Structure formats: structure tokens, C-alpha cells
Amino acid sequence: GGKGGGGASCMEFTIIDCPGRPGMERRVSEASSLADAAIITVSAKPDEFESSLMQFRQHASAALATGMKTFIIAVTKMDDPTVAFSPTRYAEVEKAARDFLRTRLKPDAKVYTLPVACLAKKKKNANISRPPPTGSPMDLCIQKSKRKRTQCLVALLASLKRLPKRSHYNVSKRPLRMFVYHSFQAPGAIIALGRVETGEIYIGQNVTILPIHAKARVVSIEHHYERREKEGAGSIIGVGVNGMGVTCFRRGYVICDDNPSVPTEIKAQIVITNQPYSIRPGMCFEMDVHCAHVPVKLKSIIHRTSGRSRDGKEAGGEILEISPKSLGPTERGLVIFTILKPLFVQPTKDCFALGRIVLRNRKIIIAAGSIKSTLNTSPTANAESEKLERRNEGKKKEKNLSSSTLDSKA
């Protein structure tokens, strides 16, 4: 994620390092939901890129599912003896990465490639903080591969534009939506870490924690280890709240300044990934929404629709079949899911980050899409809120009794 103004001198970036090894798909999905752009490093060494190509596709698919439109492909180990700044190898790796993203991105998306050499003792070829000097092995590699002279990584980051549909200045007047990805106990308050998607948050504000409808009060805000009075959309911050325990905060909860209803069913437009299985009503999946991971059940398939053409000339969306029995690989459709655990989500037109979904089955991405509308409201949300209030009142009474017994003994 980043926050910037008119130039590179006022740009602030939050670097999120997510694990790339197999079995950490959840963490990759959570990091993608927090970020505005992705830097994917691939190795130029022989057999290394080919062996990790499936892993690259999985991580790129997770970033694409969150609506990310800016990618930087960093081709590393260009100074390895087996590569030796080979322009042929650089062009081969770049083509494989670009071809995978080009068929899945919209025309307004941006994909940058950058050769990187970090193993050499001479830092003039690194291409991290400054462009390679004219005539250097890295510069000759770029020229021979018939590519434009690229910027260094730092300058490329400074020139990035934030995703227009996500946290931007035009959503600051909307209601507050901040999803939580971590919480811990601090002296005098509970610290919730997350990203502000819409609206503004300030000290002294009364907020509601969804989906449990718990009430709390903001007592402190920190951004990049600096205390702030208020923060707007796009900021990854830590918020100190009073009025609830740390066990009440869970990953995937949303902080709001109003009290909207919690849906039990959602209507979503999804596309099945290139996997060998089809989905049918009655099947259960794990759904990733921002930092939440909840089980869902496919209730019904409304209709099957046509997809967008690869050249972008045909927008798609034409209804092909009403109430199909299943959706096969690479097919699109409008479906209804039943949420099996309490979760607060919204359509993408109201909050983009709370409306992008990813469906998994055994750690494999089955489908991705966006929420069009929410159906039904949760009847158990108020009951959970009342249970939480009774628990807090019981803890206060126990604390008062313990303090009174200590006073009587004294």
C-alpha cells in the first residue's frame, strides 16, 4: 500500500513481505487485500523459474482476485554465472510472466518488468536505487533484449498511481470501513491493526465492531510509529479502542462508524479458474474476503454469462443459460452463496475491498469474483452483541468484588 501526493518526495509506502512457499496461500491473500501494487520476484536461473512457475501463477491469481491492477515483475539473479546478463534469458522469463497476466488483466492495468542483480559485489549493476550506468552489463542486457531503458526500482515505485477503485480520496466522505487483520493487548487499550478502506477515523470516535455489533471508542491512532489525530482512506494504521476485550477482536472483523446489517447470503458474479473441476449447488468452499476466511455453501446458480474477450473489444456479460446445473472451468455466472459463519461484507459499488471474493478448495483457488448484492440479515448478530455485553458486565462485577475484598482485608 502507499500514500502519496504530488511527487516522490512525499510518497510513503508500507512494504508487506508475504511468504511465497507452498501452504501459505492465506497469508498471500491477506497481503494482497492490503496492498495497492504487487512486486513479484522471479529467478532467471535455469530450471528455477520453470520449477516455480505454478507457484508464480497461484500468487498472481491471488493478487488478481483482490482487484489489483499494478504489477512489477522483478527478474532477479541476472548476474548469476549461469545467466551472465543474458538478454535471451531475460526476454524469455519476461514473456512467460507477461503472457500469464495479459490474458487476465483489463486494458487499463499496468505490468512493469525490471531486471535485478543483487548478488554482485559492485552495486552499480543492482538496478535497485539507481539505473544501471551506460555500458554496464545490465544496460547492455536491456538494449540487446530490445526493451526500453527501465527505471530503477525506487523510481518505478515513486511513479505508481494508486488503484482508483480502492481506497482513494473520492471515498473519504463515505461511512468508515476498516478491516482488522491483527489485534493485541496494550496498557489501557486494545490495539487493532488494519487498513482504512473508506471514510475517516479520528480519536474520540464511537465505532461499531462488525459482525458482532460491539460498541467501542477510539483512544489512539498510530501510522508508521507516529501518533495521529485522524487518518483517511488508504492508510494502514493501528487503532487503540476501549470497551471490549482482546478475545472479542478476530481477524476479518470490520470497524464502522454506523451500524449496518450483517448478511447471511450474497449474490456474486464469479469466474471459474482453469482447474479440471466444475462447481454445483450444495458444494462448500472456503471464501476469502479481505482478511477473513469463512466457509460458504453454494445455494444456487442464477445464470451463466459470457466472458470478456482477450483483446478487450467484447465486454461480455451476455446471458447464455438460465439456472444451469453447474459451472465448468473458465465459465462465468451469477450465483448465490450462504455464509456459514458471521461475516460482514458489502457490494463492490459500496466498498471495493469488502466485495472482492476468492473461493478455495484444499488451498487451491477455484473461483474469484465480486459481490453484487447482499441478501437477508443475520438474526444472531444482536444475540452475540448482547452476550458480549453480559460478559463484559460480568467481568466488571468480578473486578469490583475483588477490589472490595482487598479493601476489607486492608
Automatic annotation (TrEMBL):
Annotated CDD domains: Translation_factor_III (cd01513)
Keyword Nucleotide-binding in record: yes
Residues covered by region (Disordered): 376-410
Source organism superkingdom: Eukaryota
Domain Tr-type G: 12-122
Start-end of Basic and acidic residues biased regions: 384-400
Domain (GTP-eEF1A C-terminal): residue spans on this chain: 266-372
Pfam families: GTP-eEF1A_C, GTP_EFTU, GTP_EFTU_D2
Keywords from the named record: GTP-binding, Nucleotide-binding
Any coiled-coil regions, as ranges: none
Keyword presence, ATP-binding: no
Translation elongation factor EFTu-like domain residues: 191-256
Gene Ontology MF term list: GTP binding; GTPase activity
InterPro entries in the cross-refs: EFTu-like_2, GTP-eEF1A_C, P-loop_NTPase, T_Tr_GTP-bd_dom, TRAFAC_GTPase_members, Transl_B-barrel_sf, Transl_elong_EF1A/Init_IF2_C
Family affiliation: Belongs to the TRAFAC class translation factor GTPase superfamily. Classic translation factor GTPase family. EF-Tu/EF-1A subfamily.
PANTHER family named among the record's database cross-references: TRANSLATION FACTOR (PTHR23115)
Name of this protein: Tr-type G domain-containing protein
Organism: Amorphochlora amoebiformis
